[in-house]
Design brief:
Chain A: Keywords: ATP-binding, Nucleotide-binding, Repeat, Sugar transport, Transport. The structure holds two protein chains of two kinds. Chain A is of the alpha/beta class. Chain A has two domains: 244 residues, P-loop containing nucleotide triphosphate hydrolases (Rossmann fold); 235 residues, P-loop containing nucleotide triphosphate hydrolases (Rossmann fold, 3-Layer(aba) Sandwich), CATH 3.40.50. In chain A, 36% of the residues lie in helices and 22% in strands. Chain A contains 18 helices and 21 strands. In chain A, the strands form five sheets. A six-stranded mixed sheet of chain A has the order 6-7-8-3-9-10, with helices on both faces. In chain A, strands 15-18-19-13-20-21 form a six-stranded mixed sheet, sandwiched between helices. A four-stranded antiparallel sheet of chain A has the order 2-1-4-5, covered by helices on one side. Chain A starts with a helix and ends with a helix. In chain A, 49% of the residues are buried. Chain B has one domain: ABC transporter involved in vitamin B12 uptake, BtuC, CATH 1.10.3470. Helix content of chain B is 78%, strand content 0%. The N terminus of chain B is likely disordered. Classes of the chains: A alpha/beta, B mainly alpha. At the A-B interface, helix 3 and helix 4 of A face helix 1, helix 10 and helix 11 of B.
């Protein structure tokens, strides 16, 4: 096979500007059949822009796109689909009001005519069975009724379904961000099988280990350019982090975690999950960072919401002594007010303090926003811009600013860092530890085991119950997995 | 490790089927709500005046239910695309005026005007999509246009419905009163078209997640045009059905339909955003409103002066009950 024709897709000198901002500055990128390309970089490094071009949803300002060896002048989404290129976007692109089967139909124009519902249902069910055995999803479930993890499973499975068009390349943008370790493993194993059948994948993930273990070749992007591209086995974690430009910050964590913690303060939260049968309960004191771990959807979020509710109205089994703020995990549906500016989104939790007489003082709101912009590093020219002018990571920072800028002494975090780049994560970790040092209490549910390193101790959940309480010194990934799967020790 | 894994997956399956059972129950309840409110209004009528529950009684009470149901379906199409039509009432009035004049005197011109007005609706959809205008503003403006046109066509109440239309609307099927048969037929046809066909999925998807639809290569311009054209079509049917019942027209005849149609969609289980609509629910909602509007109030001996206010009160009570019940499910 001649080398030039072998590429599934090749971009030469792709450039893209959004107004004055340069999102991509002359990128060369290609994918060969039968390889998994890992794409890493901070949020805003240009990964998403590049992938939108590969998928045909954006056209480059200049540069060439070639697919299967032929040059594409009018490249578009429908053209990309004809040529066998699909994308699973980071923001979920399912219609919540439709069933799983109906959502499958949306991606397949050929699923029409008599019996299309049966065909669509069979198609998606077979693919779900193949990728995620024991998925527990019916083709007739309405997507809006599914948990966010299941929705991601449907979205991924849908991208791999085939009707009349060919399928050569699937772009997976943060495919595991809402999956627990078990389902993420199933997905990555499937990706390897897919690659083995001479198809290709682009894997974008902020979980570097995932990229290192599963990609054949890794492309690192920074500031709209490709900085390194090399075989995956030429990389290790440190080289990746250095290439991405986050090395300095990483060193700091270890040092700060090692620093001694102050003695436990007064009790802030004592909560028992509704399903808990034995006497175990979750206890959090002032200045503590408490982790909530276990497989996704095993009652961690429910407990956080119960604690949140208990702060305003007494509930049996839950004791809360200070005001509470919640940082939502599904920021699009639970966190952000889409029509509002960044400053308004930050100020909403502190309206009582921002009041001047009966009205909100714009000056105080702006001051609060300015303070947190500096403190947490929200990258925007103007805090009065709409919240959607920010990249995903910066939106999440604004939600943190909302919680930390309030009077809340207890901050509940519902897996808030999913899909956020490592640079932002490290900044937020620092801030959380700093605030904990000042006496704030954090309850932190996370699906990423690495994040638990920041916690003082960790409660592992299974089926809505606490099954283990691990101190900092006994905290290992094996231990958490063991407790999440096994019966309580 | 192995047996533990199996236990975990068995566990997960058991949990998910229980979860799904609960969800299915919630969805069933949500689906039954419109029927429940209809049953409630019927029970009240039966209690106040048992004789009304008869073939003749229903034909009389549900007299205006068909045009209301058609207008509600028109509104439902617009709401499926996350828009709102504030002009449907005056549009029905305009169609009524055309039906009672041109359609009877010069059928060809009448048909052309009605088809043209559906075309105007389609263009409105295109305008709203292309210029990214709020539909409330555009249709509010259009409501005055339709009203003005209606007055131009028929300055004074009058005109006469075409004979064939009168014949259709006074059809008396055996056993089941005509309004009920017609409502059932309308509900089923639209249900099949919007909920079961493959393009119906695309239309509803455009309300659920327009960005996703666009990424999958569908034209949002087209879905919006189709939804508005369907609204226009059912608006025309509603106006014609109305004149077939009242036999003559008046430029203000449909004005109340804007609010009735919105309330009917919501009462029938629809939501303002997110593409969640139910054609059968909308028809049932329209029937409920048609019954609650006047027969129920007359049986309650409420003087005509107060009926409009009482009508509003019933609307608020019924819609509030719906919100309360659907909130409890969550």
């Amino acid at each position: 096979m001649p080398e030039g024709n072998a590429d599934i897709i090749r971009l030469n000198g792709a450039e893209k500007h959004f107004g004055a901002v340069r999102a991509l500055g002359g990128v060369d990128f290609h994918v060969r059949p039968g390889e998994c390309v890992g794409l890493v970089g901070h949020n805003g490094a240009g990964k998403s822009t590049l992938m939108h071009m590969v998928a045909g949803t954006l056209t480059p300002d200049s540069g060439k796109i070639g697919v299967h060896g032929g040059v594409e002048d009018n490249y578009s989404v429908s053209r990309a689909q004809k040529l066998g290129i699909r994308c699973v976007f980071q923001e979920l692109s399912l219609c919540p009001n439709l069933s799983v089967a109906e959502n499958t139909r949306i991606n397949h124009a050929s699923l029409s005519g008599l019996g299309w519902r049966r065909k669509a249902a069979a198609l998606i069910t077979a693919k779900l069975d193949e990728i995620f055995p024991d998925h527990g999803i019916s083709a007739w479930d309405i997507v809006g009724d599914l948990s966010i993890g299941r929705r991601q499973m449907v979205e991924v499975a849908r991208a791999f379904t085939v009707t009349q068009d060919r399928l050569d390349l699937v772009i997976l943008d943060e495919p595991t961000s809402s999956l627990d370790a078990h389902t993420a493993g199933q997905l990555l194993a499937f990706v390897r099988r897919f690659i083995a059948s001479d198809k290709s994948c682009i894997l974008i993930s902020h979980v570097l280990g995932e990229v290192l273990r599963n990609a054949d070749r890794i492309v690192v992007m920074r500031d709209g350019k490709v900085v390194v591209a090399d075989a995956a086995n030429a990389f290790d974690r440190d080289r990746l982090v250095t290439a991405m430009g986050g090395a300095e910050a990483r060193q700091k964590i270890a040092a700060e975690i090692a620093a001694a913690r102050p003695a436990a303060g007064p009790l802030r939260v004592r909560a028992r999950p509704a399903a808990q049968k034995d006497g175990a309960d979750l206890v959090a004191r002032a200045g503590e960072i408490i982790g909530l771990a276990g497989l996704a959807g095993h009652g961690q979020t429910d407990l956080l919401l119960a604690i949140f509710a208990a702060a305003s109205r007494a509930r049996t089994g839950i004791e809360v002594t200070e005001p509470v703020a919640l940082v939502a995990g599904d920021r699009q549906s639970d966190g952000i007010f889409p029509q509002w500016s960044i400053a308004e989104n930050i100020g909403i939790r502190s309206l009582a303090r921002l009041r001047n007489g009966l009205l909100i003082s714009p000056r105080r709101e702006a001051e609060l926003a300015q303070f947190w912009q500096k403190k947490i590093g929200i990258r925007t020219p103007d805090m009065n811009n709409n919240i959607f002018s920010l990249s995903g990571g910066n939106q999440q920072k604004a939600l943190f600013a909302r919680a930390l800028g309030s009077d809340a002494q207890i901050v509940l975090m519902d897996d808030p860092m999913r899909g956020v780049d490592i640079g932002t994560k490290l900044e937020v970790y620092d801030l959380v530890r700093e605030e904990a040092g000042r006496g704030r209490t954090f309850l932190w549910y996370t699906t990423e085991t690495e994040e638990l390193d920041n916690c003082d101790h960790v409660y592992v959940f299974k089926n809505g119950r606490i099954v283990a309480n691990l101190g900092r010194d006994e905290l290992t990934e094996e231990k958490i997995i063991q407790s999440s799967f096994g019966d309580a020790a | 490790m192995r047996p533990e894994m199996t236990a975990a997956s068995l566990d997960a399956t058991a949990r998910s089927s229980a979860e799904r059972g609960a969800l299915a129950r919630a969805r069933l309840l949500r689906g039954l709500l419109p029927a429940l409110s209809l049953a409630l209004v019927l029970a009240a009528i039966a209690w106040l005046n048992p004789r009304a529950i008869s073939y003749f009684g229903f034909s009389l009470m549900l007299n205006l239910a068909i045009p209301i149901a058609l207008a509600t379906i028109a509104q439902m199409f617009v709401i499926s695309g996350n828009e709102l039509d504030l002009s449907i009432g005056t549009f029905v009035g305009f169609v009524g005026c055309v039906t009672a004049t041109w359609l009877k005197d010069a059928p060809l011109i009448g048909v052309a005007i009605l088809l043209g007005s559906i075309g105007v609706y389609a263009l409105l959809g295109a305008l709203i999509h292309l210029r990214n205008l709020p539909s409330i503003v555009v249709t509010l403006g259009m409501s005055f246009v339709w009203q003005g046109l209606a007055i131009l066509v028929l300055p004074k109440p009058g005109g006469k419905a075409p004979d064939w239309l009168l014949a259709i609307m006074s059809f008396k099927p055996p056993l089941i009163p005509f309004p009920i048969t017609a409502a059932l037929l309308i509900g089923l046809v639209v249900h099949f078209g919007l909920m079961r066909t493959s393009y119906g999925v695309i239309l509803r998807g455009s309300g659920g997640n327009p960005a996703a639809l666009k990424r999958a290569g569908w034209s949002l311009l087209r879905t919006k045009i189709v939804l508005f054209a369907l609204a226009g079509l059912f608006g025309v049917l509603s106006g014609m059905a109305l004149i077939g019942i009242t036999t003559s027209a008046d430029a203000n005849i449909g004005n109340g339909y804007t609010l009735l149609s919105i309330a009917g969609v919501i009462l029938g289980g629809g939501e303002f955003v997110g593409g969640r609509v139910s054609p059968i629910g909308a028809v049932i909602g329209a029937l409920t409103l048609a019954l609650a509007a006047s027969p129920l109030l007359t049986f309650m001996h409420i003087p005509p002066d107060w009926q409009v206010a009482a009508n509003g009160a019933i609307l608020i009570i019924v819609l509030a009950a719906r919100v309360l019940i659907s909130r409890r499910e969550r």
